[in-house]
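Support request, please re-run this one:
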Amino acid sequence: MIYWTRTVYLDHNATTPLADEVCDAMVRAMEHTHGNASSLHTAGREARGLIDQARMSVASAIGCDPGQILFTSGGTEANNTVIQGVFAAAGKGHVITSRIEHESVLGACQRVIALGGEVTFLDAGSDGRVRVEDVRAAIRPDTILISIMHANNETGAIQPIEELASVAAQAGIALHTDAVQSVGKIPVQVDALGCEFLTLTAHKIRGPKGVGAIYWRGKTPWIPLVHGGDQERGLRPGTEAAHQIVGLGAAIDLAMRRMDDDSARLRRLRGKLIEGIRSVWPESRIHEAPEGSQVPGTVNVAFCGKEGIRVLAGLDCHLVSVSIGSACTADRIEPSHVLIGMGISTEEALSSIRMSMGATTSAKDVDYVLKVLREVLQNDPEGFGYMDPQHLTEERIRSEHSFLIDLRMPFERLVRPSLPGAKEWSYVGFERRMPQVPRDKEAILICSTGILSMAMGYRLARSGHPKVRVIYGGYDAWHAQYPKLLAKLRQKRDAGEQGA
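Re-run finished. Output below.
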């Protein structure tokens, strides 16, 4: 049975819905403030005033001086700026980080290695927390930076930043913490943390995508990644996107006002969700830190004996959005680097999903998710899976072992032609046509966006078809991957029709 009675978004750690008041503030800025903040005239001063106000909001939230805040395009740029900037200023040296960091930190550290530096990647404990003694033991005379996140994006585990800052200070080393998952969710005060750098972003706290910030205490020199302007004291040149920065300021103000209430509510919902999961699937394992070291709202759970990607697909069919930390490669799924970095087995990591709640999550949402979860886990179709658009090659499309179905809404025939080589079926009567799908072929379903094909593919697999694959992102994603192939296939099809 597929319920489809509710849409539930449980992926707030990936991004959050834009808050109405944040949207309103941004619209006002775009409608009424059009000046360049670097200009001296009235319009420019108005834009500068909005940016300064947002800067004060961010500074107030984390307890620093507004002059210590620099705006960026988001957390990824902020993390790269700090790590690469400190290394560039030093010219050489050693960096300490962990294996459970966000990809932007890991990627920046790989860049340090490429430029001749050295990096130590530390494992975390089974509770998802980096061990202070491991960091202390990794320090060398040439260590120039320690970069450890404040709260983990997959498990919600809060790291011992205060203790790490003490270790770093004793050794005269700068500490950077990626606080993207903690600012606005739990109290974050830079003086209490003791960090030299802190990075954050807006879209994790109901703000817009494309804007973030760096806190810099001001003691450790660094070289900016971008050059050619005096904006942000010359440390992040480029005309400021005033409306985006306004959105960050409004979002952080809202988060601070609601923090206590949201935190208490999310802790209750998290407990309710975990209790329900254990009832539905007693073999489940929760990957979490001890009480008091866990961000409210994040549940990372291994459904032992199941594949996480299938659980995600089943929930998605019921319009429940969750995530997996695994990465899809050509022929297999790689387990989450975070869970592997915690010492969790590959098998358990591949059975895990993350459910992250936020300001829009209700108790009724949790009730619905548990109801759907029971259905998905107890009636999991063995043959269902996703396919990356890049793997739908010409050879696969033309293969005698493939049965390609292009699903359509009634009006879509006017929007785009069908994929050459595919059966064009309406989703309305799809269930009646399912018996026509050969059981000895790989059924590949595609639609414009991937939503209809996902739902219908799940139904096809539930009917007993042994191998059903749904294209991630649908026709649009595939076309973006293979624009020339589409034209080639159409030419061959048209030539065949003319020859006939």
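The CA atoms of residues 9 and 235 lie 37 Å apart. The longest strand covers residues 402-408.
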